[in-house]
Amino acid sequence: MGGRRLPPLWLVLTGAIPFALVILPVGYVALNAVEAGPSGILSDLIRPYTLNLLVNTLVLSVSVTFCAGAIATAAAWCTERCDLPGRRWWRLATALPLAMPAYVSSFAWSSFGPAFQEMGGAILILTFYSVPLIYLPVCAALRSLDPNFEDVARSLGLGRWRSFGRVVLPQLAPALGGGALLVAAHMLAEFGALSFLRVETFTTAIFDQYTAEFNNQTAALLSGVLLLICIPVALAEASLRRRRFARISRGSARRRVPIRLGRLAPFVVLGFVALTLLGFVVPLATLGFWMWRGHSTGTGIGDLGQALLTSLGYAAPGAVLTTLLAVPLVVATTYFRGRFATLSDRLPYLVHGLPGIVVALAAVAVTIRFAPAVYGSSFVVLLVYAVLFLPLAQSAVRASAALVPGEFTDVARSLGKRPLAAFVLATLPNLLPGIGAALALVGLQVMRELTATLLLAPAGVVTLATEFWSYTSDRAYGAAAPFAAALVLISGVPVYIFTVRTLGVPSLDVTEEL
Amino acid sequence: MSVLRIEGVRKSYGGPDVLTGVDLTLPSGAVMALLGTSGCGKTTLLRLIAGFEAAQAGRIVLGERVLEAPGIHIPAEQRHIGYVPQEGTLFPHLTVAANVGFGLTRAERRAGRVAEALELTGLTGLEARYPSDLSGGQQQRTALARALAPQPGLILLDEPFAALDMALRRAVCADVVALLRANGATAILVTHDPQEAFASADLVAVMRRGTIAQCADPATLYRAPVDAEVARLTGETIFLDATLRDGRAETVLGAVRVPAGATCSRKASVLLRPEQVRVAEAGHGVAVRVLSQGFRGDHTLVSVEAGGKELTIRLPGLAEAGETLHLQVVGAGVAFG
Hints:
The complex is a heterodimer of chains A (514) and B (337).
Chain A: H1 9-45, H2 48-81, H3 87-95, H4 102-110, H5 118-144, H6 148-155, H7 160-189, H8 192-196, H9 202-211, H10 216-242, H11 265-293, H12 303-335, H13 339-352, H14 356-370, H15 378-401, H16 407-414, H17 419-448, H18 451-456, H19 464-473, H20 477-503
Chain B: E1 4-12, E2 17-26, E3 31-35, H1 42-50, E4 57-62, E5 65-69, E6 72-73, E7 81-84, H2 96-100, H3 106-110, H4 113-120, H5 136-148, E8 154-158, H6 166-182, E9 187-191, H7 194-200, E10 203-208, E11 211-216, H8 218-223, H9 228-233, E12 238-245, E13 248-251, E14 254-257, E15 266-272, E16 277-279, E17 286-295, E18 300-306, E19 309-315, E20 324-329, E21 334-336
Parallel strand pairs in B: 3-9, 3-10, 7-8, 8-9
Antiparallel strand pairs in B: 1-2, 1-4, 4-5, 5-6, 10-11, 12-13, 12-15, 13-14, 15-21, 16-20, 17-18, 17-20, 18-19
């Protein structure tokens, strides 16, 4: 049986990597803080400027999280529990904004003019972008929640709304809370979108300090303040990820009777139409408009192929490196228990909640100081990708590992294989589906990553994301649009797969609508 | 507690009727078991009584109050009918005390009704526990306490013991029924296990294909089922070909008394329960040859050949294959068409 065995040395060594990854951004901030000294920190941070950043960052994160949470919960309720016409398609439609990187939809909206900029516009646009991040987990939770709970509450005299508030909502709390914290973490870390929308937050300020004013110390100190906000959010998210209400009963497999919307149905459908229009169709149509009618349409279109190739050139090694780091971590926690393995498995989730811009600056600072030879090389970019996307790969591999018993390796050893050979021959082949999913997911995320690529890519390297960025910075919307469209197309694939896997395949089978 | 009357209730989910016209009367203070195979509509009937769904036709009346009738559908939360679903379905985010107090008003909670319900169900001391820390039996008791606390006019239990293992199941069932009786509750218990139905209920209603086939007290149902199908649903059966004459049936196991049997002579099928066939004293009974046996501990299933037909009977002791036994029938049989 898989008791408490000590992991072999190779696992300990790979398990140490996450520790190094966490130390990277925290060490970078700490080092700069020490160099600045107490007086330097105070004079740099105690300014109305910092307060303004703090207010903006918090107002944005809290508003977007709250609005997206409310919309997502209502939408999930309608698609999962009501007789909404065509609800299988609305499920997919509600998840679609995931296919549009936040900086692309923000660019599209902001190109309409100043009405869709600044704080008000940012809250609106990023809310629509964030809805799916809460919608999908809440849907899944609603689906696995035994409808008998509501029946019991009603038999005890509670109406539909009070049953929802007192019985359903508390049980959705882990999913809702997890999704909300994820949105909050995204908002704290978002850079590209806020830059288009002209909202000054910590991330845009750090970027400006670093690139425009070459002020590395202020950038580091601001990063420190941002980390202080991010780390609790990331910790809370990581702990919610594990906490679920103990399931004490398996739902009886009875037909669920959907709640009749009746006369409300047209209004609810209208709401979904609006959600889909605002979250996906309008930004996409805007890209289309700029592609046909922009002043700069056609400029740089010849570079599209080259940029795509370069993006792929980063995505492939980035995915391989990240997955290579993820596999031993997952294996260590799945087959060898122990504090060290558990901790090294969870740390990446913490780092995932940290802003890409901070991780990128830390990587720059560390390479300049300790490894000047690799400074400015693509290797640093790949390393930062690994830090940012390790949890994604871990989750994918773990899904496979959970299905493969540790006894596979034991049996292979009893048949005369050495431990490593036993693992490679008996267990690893069964992890391949998860490894494949990890490669695909990380690769696609790398392609749409903007901030770190922008800061770290060697001079002259042009990817889809950076090319889009530089054209929009020059207000060449027509030239930027094809690059954005390519990014949306690429992102659409994993969104479709993810949605279908979580919520089932949309089909035209009418009987299943029941 | 008051009388429940169900008249001509029909229900469909778009396809063929799940309930094809149910009539049922349950006196006040009685415990009724609703017995049937899965898919016969018993859970649907329960959900209509609870008010979770509306019927397409028919009436449901509890005491003086019309709950369901053409144009009338009182919602579940206003019916005052307790509901204990499969596996209890305790709210996992609430303690035992909060679960039990869920359906009570603040004033009722202040008046000590939670403690009262807990004491009644023997749960005192577990107030602060969460459902995940309870045993299966304790979970069922808590679910029952939660349903009983608001003192409903009727309690519905939907296969409440299906999740428990066999040994626990009998004990918890007896426990729950004792509690229902101590409270003078009127209750309907859905089950597919005849043993459970007989052990727990004053009345057993056998349901089949969306309608009530027979409703009677357990002994009547077991001894005098209305047809062969109800007989099979309520226990083990032996059917013998017979000729009816003068209130008696001539079978391969000899003459069997059939009350209300036809006076004119005709062919029929006679139902016996396995325990009615016994080994006769020397010189009596019908000789049969043992084909094979299956040891079951407290009894043995013995396959015998009688008059060219194979029968399976239940004997207290063992029998060797090839051995000859003398069998006799005890008590009356039931003749069917």
